[in-house]
Design brief:
Blueprint: H1 5-20, H2 24-33, H3 59-74, H4 96-115, H5 118-132, E1 134-142, E2 146-152, E3 157-161, E4 167-174, H6 178-185, H7 192-199, E5 209-213, E6 230-236, E7 241-248, E8 253-257, H8 270-273, H9 275-296, E9 300-301, E10 328-329, H10 337-354, H11 357-367
Helix pairs in contact: 3-5, 9-10
Length: 370
């Protein structure tokens, strides 16, 4: 294999992907039990396929949604100014010209975010942060709205940190269709296979694309722009065809970890930390449902004479000779349903607390003046 830029990027992506392998099962549990709307991590399902068959109690899902809505409402509110600019030298803030200038820049900043897709993408970002512990937001230029944002699922991204523990390398892999690729890179820059799909009218055909962003100096190639601290390479993975080589003055991906251990790239989250409780809660709810079903429609002890003739539908009439054995419940099915409900509610409270549901409810009450 020739030692080309394309091959080095693919090899680097493979190495980084090995770091992600131990996390896939954890993230898949989050999809299965907490966030069924997010993408799978260690299995392939068709778009729109049902993914809630393991969920018997939706409390964790509601808690995650409350967490994301709480951050949106109280951290990056779409209706309330949430950012302000000041000078490093606080003495300069005494001049009204400086204060006026910074207030105007803040107003323009918030207006730009309002016009862009920042807020819808931030909601997805917070869902990933509370669910998977690692969230990735891309910021790029947009000719129409100045800037646009893309919340990139952790299943698409592999990351690496620099010596200071800051993420400075990312390889994102996803599958756009030919139409999307032509819009972003130009039809003439696509591979021959992709161009053929376009000519044949197969614009929905998908190709795997890799976007690699890394510090200047990690890879040496005359095609990489030297003026940018962070070169950027888009490439079709299968054919190793370069779609675009660009660059950034600042790292364009904002990678946030909820909490993480030293030496690890990916983070932990309330959903990951609470997964034992979440699985226990679902097992408890399943047992309560079974107990409740038995109490409502118990198994019956039926005398032999009724074989094939018993009617259990509403208003069903079963005739028996006087003195014959009657139809009765097979056993006492009352059990300890109240104890099960109490244990289930304890788990619900623990999970809600871990997702800070009580904090956001308190803030909501304060906002209403309570």
């Amino acid at each position: 294999m020739p030692d080309t830029l394309e091959r080095r990027i693919i090899d680097r992506a493979v190495d980084l992907d090995k770091i992600k392998d131990p996390w896939r099962n954890r993230w898949q549990d989050v999809v299965d039990y907490v966030a069924p709307s997010r993408e799978d991590h260690n299995r392939q399902r068709r778009s729109g396929e049902e993914k809630t068959h393991k969920i018997y109690d939706s409390t964790p899902t509601e808690a995650l949604n409350t967490l994301a809505a709480g951050f949106m409402g109280y951290h990056t509110s779409q209706t309330t100014p949430w950012v302000s600019l000041v000078t490093a030298d606080r003495a300069l803030m005494e001049f009204w010209e400086v204060k006026y200038y910074l207030e105007e820049v803040t107003r323009q900043l918030l207006l730009t975010l309002q016009r862009s897709n920042f807020y819808p993408q931030m909601h997805e970002f917070y869902l990933d942060l509370g669910g998977f512990g690692t969230a990735v937001l891309y910021a790029g230029d947009d000719a129409e709205n100045t800037v646009y944002f893309k919340s990139c699922g952790v299943n698409e991204c592999t990351i690496a940190e620099n010596s200071k523990g800051l993420v400075d390398t990312i390889h994102r892999e996803w599958k756009p269709d030919v139409r999307q690729m032509a819009q972003e890179f130009g039809l003439k820059n696509l591979s021959r296979d992709a161009q053929k799909c376009w000519r044949d009218g197969k614009m929905g055909e998908r190709f795997e694309v890799v976007h690699a962003v890394f510090p200047q100096g990690d890879f040496r190639d005359p095609r990489l722009p030297k003026q940018f601290p962070f070169p950027s390479v888009y490439m079709e993975k299968g054919s190793e065809h370069i779609l675009s080589i660009r660059g950034y003055f600042e790292f364009p991906f904002m990678v946030t970890r909820w909490s993480k251990n030293t030496g690890q790239c990916f983070g932990y989250s309330p959903a990951i930390d609470q997964m034992p409780n979440i699985k226990t809660l679902n097992a408890q709810e399943r047992a309560i449902i079974k107990a409740g079903s038995k109490a409502v429609s118990p198994p019956l002890d039926v005398p032999p004479g009724y074989r094939g003739r018993i009617k259990t539908a509403p208003d069903g009439l079963n005739y028996r000779a006087k003195g014959k054995d009657k139809i009765s419940a097979l056993y006492d099915v009352a059990g300890n349903v109240p104890i099960g409900i109490e244990l289930r509610n304890q788990k619900r409270d623990e999970i809600k607390s871990a997702f800070y549901t009580d904090v956001f409810m308190m803030l909501a009450n304060l906002q209403r003046g309570q």
